[in-house]
Write a structure and sequence with these properties.
The chain is mainly beta and 295 residues long. The strands form four sheets. It has a 17-stranded parallel β-sheet that branches. An eight-stranded parallel β-sheet has the order 6-9-12-16-20-22-24-27. A two-stranded antiparallel sheet has the order 1-2. The termini are far apart. It is built from three helices and 29 strands.
C-alpha cells in the first residue's frame, strides 16, 4: 500500500509494505506520518522493534486466577522492555521484583483502569512491587525506570504498595494506591526519585502512611493523599515536595500531615487537613516551608 504523504521528513517510512511485509503489526496509524505503533512478532530478530510487551497477550488473566508466577516470569523474560497492562484486574499473591540496572531496566505502564490487586491469599511482608531489590548497586547509575498509570490495590492484606531500593532516577506518575498500610516506600538506597500525580486512598488505620520517604535528592509533586494517619513521613535530605495535599479521615485519630525528620528539604504549596498536627518538624531539621498551610 503506497500512501501519499506530503512533507514527510527524509528517511521516514512512506510505504506500509516496508513494515507489514516484514513484521507482524497492529495499530498502524496513518496521519501526517506513517507509524507502526506495535509490532507483535516477538521473535528474537524482531524484539527490538516491539514497543510494549502486552501482559494480556502473554498471560490468561480471566477467572480471577493468580498470575504471580506468570507475571514474574514475563518480567524476567523481557529485560530492558516496557510491560503494558490493558484495563482489567491482575491478581497477585506474592511480591513482584523489577530489575533497575542501567543495562536491563524493566518499566511498567498501566492503562487508567488496569488494577494490580493483592489476593486474600497474599503472603510475605514485602511490597506488592519492589524496584531494584536484586539489582547490583554498581549498575544503577543511568538506569531508566518508569512506572505509569493504573491502580495498585492492597485489598487490606498487602502492607506496602511499591518500594524503591537500589535504583537511581526512578520516575512514577498517575498511579492510584488504595487499601495499603504504606502506599509508597522510597528507601535510603533509592536515589533522586521523581514522583508526580500520585493518588493515595489509605486504609485509615492508625498505622497508615501515604508516602514513606527515606531517600534523598528527589521530587514529589502534584499528589493527593487521603485516609491516612501520616500523610508524608520524610527522613531524607534535599527533597522537594511541591503541591502535595494530605487529608485525614474527619474525626479520626490521624497524627501528622507531614512528619519531617529529615533536613534541608523544601515544602512548597503543600496542604494538610484534619490532622492532629499538620506539620511536625524535629528540632534539628533545617527545612524550608513556603506557601504551605494546615487546616
Amino acid at each position: 500500500v503506497q500512501v501519499p504523504v506530503s512533507g514527510v521528513p527524509e528517511g521516514a517510512i512512506k510505504n506500509i509494505d516496508e513494515i507489514v511485509g516484514k513484521y507482524t503489526t497492529t495499530n498502524v496509524f496513518l496521519g501526517e506520518y506513517v507509524f507502526a505503533r506495535m509490532i507483535t512478532d516477538k521473535s528474537p530478530e524482531n524484539i527490538d522493534f516491539v514497543e510494549y510487551i502486552v501482559v494480556s497477550d502473554e498471560i490468561d488473566i480471566s477467572n480471577n486466577r493468580d498470575i504471580t508466577a506468570d507475571l514474574q516470569a514475563l518480567i524476567n523474560k523481557y529485560p530492558g522492555r516496557t510491560i503494558y497492562f490493558n484495563d482489567g484486574v491482575y491478581n497477585i499473591s506474592a511480591p513482584l521484583n523489577l530489575n533497575a540496572d542501567r543495562e536491563n531496566p524493566v518499566s511498567l505502564r498501566l492503562s487508567n483502569y488496569a488494577t494490580i490487586k493483592a489476593l486474600s491469599t497474599w503472603t510475605g511482608d514485602g511490597a506488592m512491587i519492589t524496584i531494584g531489590a536484586k539489582t547490583d548497586v554498581s549498575k544503577i547509575q543511568g538506569a531508566d525506570i518508569t512506572l505509569m498509570g493504573g491502580i495498585i490495590d492492597g485489598s487490606g492484606v498487602a502492607k506496602v504498595g511499591i518500594s524503591f531500593e537500589n535504583c537511581e532516577n526512578p520516575f512514577m506518575s498517575d498511579i492510584t494506591f488504595k487499601n495499603l498500610k504504606t502506599s509508597v516506600w522510597a528507601k535510603a538506597t533509592a536515589v533522586s526519585i521523581n514522583f508526580e500525580s500520585i493518588t493515595v486512598n489509605g486504609d485509615a488505620s492508625s498505622e497508615s502512611i501515604g508516602l514513606l520517604i527515606e531517600s534523598s535528592s528527589g521530587v514529589v509533586s502534584t499528589s493527593h493523599i487521603a485516609n491516612v494517619s501520616i500523610g508524608v513521613k520524610n527522613s531524607g535530605s534535599y527533597n522537594d515536595f511541591r503541591n502535595v495535599a494530605v487529608y485525614a479521615k474527619p474525626n479520626s485519630s490521624a497524627q501528622y500531615g507531614f512528619l519531617e525528620n529529615g533536613t534541608s528539604n523544601v515544602f512548597e504549596l503543600c496542604t494538610a487537613q484534619d490532622f492532629a498536627c499538620g506539620y511536625f518538624i524535629k528540632d534539628s531539621a533545617k527545612s524550608v516551608f513556603e506557601a504551605s498551610n494546615a487546616y
